[in-house]
Amino acid sequence: MQVKLQKRRFDLDWWRVIAIALVYLHHVGMPFNGDDFHIMNNASSKVLDDVMVFFEQFRLPLLFLVSGAGTAFAFSNRKWSQFLKERSKRLLIPLVFGVLVIVPPQTYYENIDLHHSYGSFYGHILDYLNVNHLWFIENLFYISVVCIPLILFLKSSRSVDFRNLLIRLGRLKLGMFAWVLPLLLIKLVSKTYFTDDSKDILNLSSTLFYGFFFIAGLIMASTPTLWYCLKKYRKRNAFLMLFSVLVFYGYYFLPDTIASRFFSISTRWSLWYVLSTVLGWTLVITFLGYGQVWFNKKSRLLGVLNEGIYPFYILHQTVLVVFGYYIISLSSSIPIKIGLLIMTSLPIILIIYRWGIYPFRILRLLFGMKNNR
């Protein structure tokens, strides 16, 4: 006997669109927040960095959780071999195409002083191959493949006792919040051995952290009662989220001169991991709860956005880097440059998608879209 999954959740489609829109806005701000990016403005904004650090705690976890739920739905009517074929088509083909065609312009502008032209740069492309922002697609493929046994288990009747245990936990007032405990354990232990912030698949502190959200999405999609628990306790989760925001920023703005009096540097990093993880989890479960009230209904706009959001993600950073390279050289303020970057990059991305990708079957395949029937 197999577990029957619930019907499509339109609220998750909305959260996918919102999460990728936030990824786009995050990359718009990267040249100006003082962090390391492919192109950097001469001046940086501390205020912008202070705002962006908040969104960093949930946009990718939310995206991985939604992807996990979507994977469960994609697997529901397929054998594992069919699922693997579908994942390869939707993920590996765009990844290879992206690494060879979409990503190289970013690398070129990052190293533009070393090359006479883009043609001469591309002649040495094998020296510069990098997944870059497409690391999400790479990770999603590997995590999906590794999770095939778990998906098969969740589809079978053998998972009934396990899912019933999660349902009993979820029905408690703090039941869904309690999922943060294994997530904290993963974060703290993995960061002990993998301190890098790299998104490389072999950096287990990153892969295991995002993998937890992916698996959470798989489990929630296979256990509809958990969605009800998120909706039922959304106000309580919202309170925990607001409290987490206050504690997070209280620690974030705590001067180093004060923190160093009481905590060693390793302890301070551990506290940061705890607070950021709790904040990220409470934000995600709160959004998932309220999303069922706000977004869980079909709309024509959602259909259009959901179809185009994947190629939008593949394209966005390359367009931002190309236009941003010239915009940051202007003698204007940071807000004006950010406005210019949005006003130039967003229309170009949409034009490329609508008239350069959408109508053509081969390009739809290369950008991971389904056939346009």
> What class do helices, strands and sheet pairing give?
mainly alpha
Quick one: overall form? globular
What's the end-to-end separation, in Å? 34 Å
Q: What is the number of strand segments?
A: 0
The DSSP helix count reads 18
- Determine Rg (CA atoms, Å): 21 Å
What order do the SSEs take from the amino end to the carboxyl end, as H and E?
HHHHHHHHHHHHHHHHHH
Largest sheet: none
- Helix share of residues? over 70%
| Low-pLDDT runs | none
Query: What is the average per-residue confidence, as pLDDT, rounded to a whole number?
Result: 92
The amount of beta strand, in percent, is under 5%
What does this structure look like?
This protein has 373 residues and is mainly α. It has one domain. Helix content is 72%, strand content 0%. It has 18 helices and no strands. The chain has helices at 10-29, 46-55, 59-75, 80-102, 104-110, 118-122, 135-146, 148-155, 160-170, 180-193, 204-222, 224-232, 234-252, 256-262, 265-294, 300-327, 334-357, 361-366. Helix 1 runs parallel beside helix 16 (300-327). The two termini are 34 Å apart.
SSE topology sketch:
Blueprint: H1 10-29, H2 46-55, H3 59-75, H4 80-102, H5 104-110, H6 118-122, H7 135-146, H8 148-155, H9 160-170, H10 180-193, H11 204-222, H12 224-232, H13 234-252, H14 256-262, H15 265-294, H16 300-327, H17 334-357, H18 361-366
Summarize the structure.
The chain has helices at 10-29, 46-55, 59-75, 80-102, 104-110, 118-122, 135-146, 148-155, 160-170, 180-193, 204-222, 224-232, 234-252, 256-262, 265-294, 300-327, 334-357, 361-366. With 373 residues, it is mainly α.
